[in-house]
Amino acid sequence: MARRDNFIAQINQGYQMKGGSIVLGAAMLDGEPIKDAFVKIPLKTINRHGLIAGATGTGKTKSLQVFAENLSDNGIPVLLMDVKGDLSGIAKSGAENDHITKRHAQIGLAYEPKGFPVEILSLSQQKGVRLRATVSEFGPTLLSRILDLTDVQTGILAIVFQYCDDEKLPLLDLDDFKKVLQFATNEGKEEFEKKYGRISTASTGSILRKIVELEQQGGDLFFGEKSFDVNDLVRIDENGRGIISVLRLTDIQDQPKLFSTFMLQLLAEIYNTFPEIGDPDRPELVIFIDEAHLVFENATKTLLDQIESIIKLIRSKGIGIYFVTQNPKDIPSDVLSQLGIKIQHALRAFTANDRKGIKLAAQNYPISDFYEVDQELTKLGTGEALVTVLNEKGMPTPLARTLLRAPMSRMDILTDKELDELISNSKLVPKYNDAINRESAYEILTKKLENASTVKNQKSASGSKTNKSAMDPLLKVVTSATFVRGVFGILNKMMKK
Questions:
Q1: pLDDT tens profile 69-83
Q2: Cβ-count burial of 95 within 10 angstroms (0-12 exposed, 13-18 middle, 19+ buried)?
Q3: Are 382 and 96 in contact (CB under 8 A)?
Q4: What is the pLDDT of residues 351-400, one digit of tens each?
Q5: Of 322, 379, 415, 438, which is closest to residue 48 (Cα–Cα)?
Q6: Which of 17, 229, 280, 351 is buried most, with the most CB atoms less than 10 Å from its CB?
Q7: CB-based contacts of 44: which residues, under 8 Å, 6+ apart?
Q8: What is the rounded distance in angstroms from the CA atom of residue 136 to the CA atom of residue 215?
Q9: Domain ranges of the chain
Q10: Please, are residues 468 and 202 in contact by the beta-carbon 8 Å criterion?
Q11: Which residues pair with 27 in a beta bridge?
Q12: What angle do CA 313, 316, 321 make, to 5 degrees?
């Protein structure tokens, strides 16, 4: 009994919050939930980033859903990366059943089914608000890291951007970018050499090939106008609830470069746009990246460094970033070290490598007097997780095996009809879904080359005419009747002699 009392006291003390908080569920001891021993996350430390991990089918998505719902209820906007396509149901009310009723009775919470304000976003041709960004917004540094360019190629990129600035050439889409690169080593070669020095054709060719690769992964849809304003991610509905933006990425599995490109640009744009606010009492925006390994597995070292740097800095903007993945080892160690909040679902130990992975995963969690972490990781049931967060002073809370509450919204996808209805009521679709193709670098350079060609042809034609005109007087003399008669007269006299 003393052990149980000590455990309850530790949980209640460790998870005591003065300010606002989110209740995740109830702590468990020896496999049994303890009613009213609530495991909470303080709103004040949600911007310290976090991890939701666990094997397939252990409840990661439902944990994400619960987290997002409660953030919305607290007036905090959320961005969800929906890779599997199973998060759109958050817009509709859930349904209570015996399993949910029993679970919530064990936790000590009433169950309230309800839907949440949702905006559907898309990077591709899927339904939803179209997300775009211009090439200029990326800038040479960020773009070179995404394309994994060498130092020489990065220098060429900087020159191209400088030329476009000097010549007032808007770089909006990939066609603009390719056109300027081709111009730099062909028709505009002399112009570039005068201003910036010689540019290698081999280097520009290599850059072009990498652009084409990005283009083939959907980059042609992403780059362009109208650019998405990140301030549209931090909207509140008429009832004071934060709007949950669900970015549908069900077709992104084969386009990892586009996904990492978008993620890096989004984080960079948020960092550059949002004001510095230090450690607020509540976050401005929380981003959940599902299937986070897609961001990291194909990322270059420079790209990883950039992501790590942004994650370190973006906290002071009031932004929390949460990675959802199967195993903590999917996240680079330097990034993992920045994650203060951890919700760890069950891991499976089918092989020797799995067991090694579990032992490594266990090292990411505080030592507990009540749990053998590596053993607990394999015993967790569906809807259970090992949880540790940062308290309001920024210190780790006691590790708690937690029976998690059920989502209030639907634990399934929207039907096509429901999705269409949701999108038709969107305030952002009219703002972003009409593509704009205004005059930019491609059109300006094309016109410039056409004009140059016309002038050249005119000069050539003018030169031929001038030469002909210069000969005309002589021809007139030579072919005149008087001149001909005179010549024949001289010839006749010579023949008579």
A1: 999 999 999 999 888
A2: exposed
A3: no
A4: 777 788 788 888 888 888 899 888 888 889 999 999 999 999 999 999 99
A5: 322
A6: 17
A7: 19, 20, 279, 280, 281, 282, 392
A8: 16
A9: 2-132+225-432
A10: no
A11: 402
A12: 70
Q: Angle, nearest 10°, between helix axes 174-185 and 151-166?
A: 100
In degrees, rounded to 5, the angle at the alpha carbon of residue 42 between the alpha carbons of residues 319 and 378 is 95
What is the CATH topology of the domain spanning 2-132+225-432? Rossmann fold (3.40.50)
Tokens of 83: 């890779």
Quick: pLDDT tens for 252-308.
666 767 777 787 788 888 888 999 988 889 999 999 988 887 777 766 676 678 788
Q: Which residues of 381-393 are buried (b: 16+ CB within 10 A; e: fewer)?
A: eebbbbbbbbbbe
pLDDT of residue 230: 92
Neighbours of 485 (CB within 10 A): 10
Which residue reads 């370190």 in tokens? 312
Instruction: Give every CB contact of residue 352 below 8 A, 6+ residues apart in sequence.
Output: none
Q: Angle at the Cα of 52 (from 252 to 219), degrees rounded to 5?
A: 20
275 φ, ψ (degrees, to nearest 5): -75, 155
Q: How far apart are alpha carbons 80 and 287 in whole angstroms? A: 6
- Residue range 188-218, pLDDT digits in tens: 888 888 888 888 888 889 999 999 988 887 7
Provide the residue count of the chain.
497
Residue 142 buriedness (CB in 10 A; 0-12 / 13-18 / 19+)? middle
- Strands (DSSP E) contained in 61-114 are 78-82
Instruction: Write down the H helix ranges in 74-173.
Output: 98-107, 135-147, 151-166
What pLDDT score does 458 carry?
Answer: 58
Residue reference for tokens 């499976």: 348
Which token pair is 11?
């949980």
Strand segments, DSSP code E, in 355-495 are 384-388, 400-404
Are 29 and 7 contacting, i.e. CB atoms less than 8 angstroms apart? yes
